[in-house]
């Protein structure tokens, strides 16, 4: 059975991705900061007849990442797909951004993707196959109030291209997806912080997009499913914007 590990899979894009990969036939390790945060996703997958385990893990902490991969190998019997999705925002204008705002965002996105990918490649290189999908963002192109997040998400694209150079010879495809405005708890949090009702925030975003609607977590999960599937076997080192034409 194909085994996938998805970080930040307690909610939002990670949860939709874990469920989609499970419905595609994979056993899924659902990773989030606390094991309790994974319960909803794990129950949904197991309740639908799939196979999932929940693991609490801070992706920025080496020992916790190593332990999460060990548990996945021991309990699900392998590792074929890694989705580096875990992410946080600490939006603020540069002059008000704290050291902690910067370090937290870099830690989860870049250190997290690094630690998880380094752990995953051990198994994938040995078996000469694997798929790694990293979540970047349209914010990589620059977004006011997100110096930390934009830098991290642009970093993810360079990280992806470099891993593709190093790992593709071993049968491992490495790609990234850059979502635009996707309805997730992150967007709800942003609307709340800005004091704008969510429906007004979403309507404004939809009207500004060529496609005239905002995205759903399932819009992204479908592209992950494609990238880890057989139809994408000749795609590596790419970044795909899934953003309704945002740019
Ligand atoms: N030094 C001193 N003052 C400065 C300055 C500087 N370097 N730069 C700006 N200022 C001043 C401005 O002149 C302005 O002053 P006034 O209020 O007197 O006019 C003030 O600082 C800035 O005021 P703003 O009201 O513009 O800014 P704010 O601090 O209240 O908030 C913001 C700005 C953080 C960008 C906020 O608007 C925000 O959070 N926006 C949303 C950001 C966003 O898009 N986040 C996406 C989240 S979802 C996601 O990330 C998912 C994904 O992948 C796409």
Features:
single chain, 247 residues, alpha/beta, seven-stranded parallel sheet, globular, binds acetoacetyl-coenzyme A, NAD(P)-bd_dom_sf, oxidoreductase, oxidoreductase activity
What would your notes on this structure say?
This protein is an alpha/beta fold and 247 residues long. 48% of the residues lie in helices and 15% in strands. It is built from 8 helices and 7 strands, in the order βαβαβαβαβαβαααβ. The chain has helices at residues 12-23, 39-47, 62-76, 99-127, 147-167, 185-194, 198-208, 217-227; strands spanning 3-7, 27-32, 52-56, 81-84, 130-135, 172-179, 239-242. Strands 3-2-1-4-5-6-7 form a 7-stranded parallel beta sheet, with helices on both faces. Strand 5, helix 5 (147-167) and strand 6 form a beta-alpha-beta unit. Helix 1 crosses helix 8 and helix 4 packs parallel to helix 5 (147-167). The chain starts with a strand and ends in a 5-residue tail after the last strand. The model has no long low-confidence stretch (mean pLDDT 98). The chain binds acetoacetyl-coenzyme A (CAA). Residues 89, 91-93, 95, 137-139, 143-146, 149, 186-187, 190, 193-194 line the site of acetoacetyl-coenzyme A (CAA). It holds the Pfam family adh_short_C2. One of its GO terms (molecular function) is oxidoreductase activity. Residues 2-180 form the Ketoreductase domain.
